[in-house]
């Protein structure tokens, strides 16, 4: 996004992590700012949007990408782990969307992209994550219908296996080295490799393009094979 000239506000619960990302963008010639916020907290969301607006003006593109996993079998899922995952993935996306879309409606233009997952289609031992992502896809379709008359599109990207920090946690939980885990995952993917953050970013760029105006309420799985 920054490489194409967009100004990027990086929102993270960890201020240092946000600053690191901003530094990377800046070193590549892009423009970015760091905002510390927990997207599951309404007060944090309001403050985050206000910080961005005070510096750059109204938000016209929103990418909801906050998330983490606390996997467990459904009968062993602690309520606090259910609540934490649903709060960030689903509640947080709703709060950010609601906070940003008002200015988009006034402007008559906006782009919102929610990061879902192929896990929205089902899967074992992560009922909280599956439910949150399925709910996020429902939110995407419903919000797309509500906001279409105002020139706002709402879509979702559903990654498959992508090598991120979350993948490293999954490997450790499975008792494998990262290399072993990635190799096993790649063997199950028709494309023959795991995804990269760049693969997901390219899909996001499609949805936020100026001329993607007729594409809304869609879920695009970026997973190296057919899903859906």
TrEMBL record:
InterPro entries: NAD(P)-bd_dom_sf, Sc_DH/Rdtase_CS, SDR, SDR_fam. One of its GO terms (molecular function) is oxidoreductase activity. Keywords: Oxidoreductase. One of its GO terms (biological process) is monocarboxylic acid metabolic process. Belongs to the short-chain dehydrogenases/reductases (SDR) family. This is 3-oxoacyl-ACP reductase.
């Amino acid at each position: 996004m920054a490489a194409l000239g967009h100004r990027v506000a990086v929102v993270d619960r960890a201020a240092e992590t946000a600053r690191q990302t901003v530094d990377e963008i800046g070193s590549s010639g892009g423009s970015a700012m760091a905002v510390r916020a927990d997207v599951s907290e309404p007060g944090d969301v309001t403050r985050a949007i206000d910080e961005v607006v005070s510096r750059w003006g109204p938000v016209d593109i929103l990418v909801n990408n906050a998330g983490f996993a606390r996997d467990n079998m459904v009968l062993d899922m602690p309520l606090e782990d259910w609540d934490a995952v649903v709060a960030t993935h689903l509640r947080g996306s709703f709060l950010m969307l609601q906070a940003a879309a008002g200015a988009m409606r006034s402007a008559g233009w906006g782009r919102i992209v929610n990061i879902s997952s192929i896990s929205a289609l089902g899967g074992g031992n992560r009922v909280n994550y599956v439910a949150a992502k399925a709910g996020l896809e429902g939110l995407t379709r419903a919000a797309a219908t509500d906001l279409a008359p105002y020139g706002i599109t709402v879509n979702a990207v559903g990654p498959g296996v992508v090598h991120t920090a979350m993948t490293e946690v999954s490997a450790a939980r499975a008792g494998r080295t990262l290399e072993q885990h990635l190799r096993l995952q790649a063997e199950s993917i028709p494309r023959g490799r795991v995804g990269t953050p760049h693969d997901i970013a390219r899909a996001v760029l499609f949805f936020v393009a100026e001329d993607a105006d007729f594409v809304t309420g869609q879920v695009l799985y970026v997973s190296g094979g057919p899903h859906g």
